[in-house]
Amino acid sequence: MVTIQTYISKNSYDAIVNKQLLANGDFIPIHHSSAKQLGNQQLFTSNGTSLYGTVIISYQDQFLSSFYDWDDVDGIWLSILQALYDCLNTGIGSCDFSERSMDWQMKRLIEKNPAISFTWSHGFASKEWNDIPKKSTLRFPENVLLNSLIEKGTKFLKFRNALYDSGPNQNINQLIIDLKSFSSDLGYVQLE
User: Fold this and answer.
1) Fewer CB within 10 A of the terminal residue: the chain, N end or C end?
2) Neighbours of 106 (CB within 10 A)
């Protein structure tokens, strides 16, 4: 089972940077009752440029990402959706993301049951981030990853649309539409 959950940081950028270890208690899921208020506060403080959080992805109780992998959550979602779109088009999708030296790569595995190998890397960005290099790879059934990212990307888009500044919603929405088209072309049943 794939689990994808988007979280918003409870802390300011400076407070996140100064923490030695980030944990679940430092973030709230976007479905939480105070997430919208917190998101609006972050956007107001940053003049609409940054919404800090993370996207936690796991499959069969193995985690691809963690709370340590925080950054601008708009950029994380855009990059993941773009990497998946590129992967489905060309066989490989990748993205180097953020000041924090995160990147991910997706490789399409053409087998009896098509799959995607998804690698999430986090390297050294700088001393101020207290970075711990790590890399994790999980193999997902292609249709399961595609449908899960469409579903959770749509939920993030709805959350983002409810905030006072819509940010990159148009780009996120177009990628979701493109991925739904892929899902239909491949004959996968979409989750609603």
Assistant:
1) C
2) 25
In angstroms and rounded to an integer, the radius of gyration of the C-alpha atoms of the chain is: 16
Q: What is the largest CA-CA distance in the chain?
A: 50
HSE at residue 113, side-chain half, CA atoms within 13 A, is 6
State the chain's mean pLDDT as an integer: 86
Sequence letter at residue 1? M
